Amino acid sequence: xxxxxxxxxxxxKQPEKSETTKSGIxxxxxxxxxxxxxxxxxxxxxxxxxxxxxPMLVKVGDKVLVAKYAGTxxxxxxxxxxxxxxxxxxAIVE
Length: 94
Prior knowledge:
There is one protein chain. The protein is an all-beta fold. 0% of the residues lie in helices and 39% in strands. The strands form two sheets. A six-stranded antiparallel β-sheet has the order 6-7-1-2-5-8, with no helix packed on it. Strands 3-4 form a two-stranded antiparallel sheet. The radius of gyration is 15 Å and the shape is elongated.
């Protein structure tokens, strides 16, 4: 199954979460922080504003910075993804 975002939506892939701290303490899933740097895996066609199509500024493969609680988290095929609008992306990391 694949995800095809609509309009200005972007699908981001969560990096692998660390289940232990550097000192060896095992963290529960609820104690693990959501990562802020994510990878773009799918991009919509762009929003239409006042009859004009707005270009997407991100592309598949970009690493991006998002706010800590941005977007909607989904799970598909036992993998976690975040869907955000392009406006929720703070920066492209180069």
